[in-house]
Amino acid sequence: MIVAASGVEVRRGGARVVRDLSLDVRGGELLGLIGPNGAGKTSLLRALCGLDPLAAGHIAFDGRTPAEIGRAAFGRTLAYLPQNGRIHWPMTVADVVALGRLPHGAAVLDDAARRAMAAADVTPLAHRTTGTLSGGERARVLLARALAVEAPVLLADEPVAALDPYHALQVMELLRATARAGAAVVAVLHDLTLAARFCDRLALMDRGALAALGTPVEVLAPAPVAAAYRVAVESGTRDGVPFVIPWSRLDRTDRTEQSP
Length: 260
Hints:
- It is a single chain.
- The protein has 260 residues and is an alpha/beta fold.
- Helices cover 35% and strands 30% of the residues.
- Strand 6, helix 7 (165-180) and strand 7 (184-188) form a beta-alpha-beta unit.
- Helix 5 packs antiparallel against helix 6 and helix 10 packs antiparallel against helix 11 (252-258).
- The longest helix has 16 residues, at 165-180.
- It is globular.
- It starts with a strand and ends with a helix.
């Protein structure tokens, strides 16, 4: 599966929140979508899902638009984990995860749903109602629901935002494993250390535009990070894997000095 966005523009309230953005994501790849608050990351994900209309541009999945794929088939093509997902009814965890099987015909706790629960470490919570869960537990349940679709494309908006370090590492390992199994995975991330360690490529957005696209080492270099985030970073490697730590805030003069 190849997800291709070309010249994408999204408007909200008359403002361009995504501007002339083009990128491809291939099956087998974990792409980290990073950038400061308000950069347009969520708007791009919603556009890829077909939830926000395009003001311009084109989005295709293996060369076909969502309209060409068809509503039912598209539900099996793409799984979406929204930011700050909510569960409005007092359902059991097992019932919530089973909803991920709806695109395949029925919300049933089949083998795919059970695999997703095990992968997200929520099987012990199966009979608990959602109102009894912590924020981190609820986040993992919603991830399990998305994984239960077993779609070739997975879009996850801040999947580790509410998680403790153990479960944040677990979820990133799971997203990478999902990609290695053949899916095209895009994850919005604010943790640059996790982004550097787990993602194959990073797309850095700033003010609605694509500011940088490449390997973590390329994108998380001092100059692009300073320009987008207004921070300086410390970087290194462990076991051959790069890591980046935001270290200090920069004022306008500092950012000018770090520009190429």
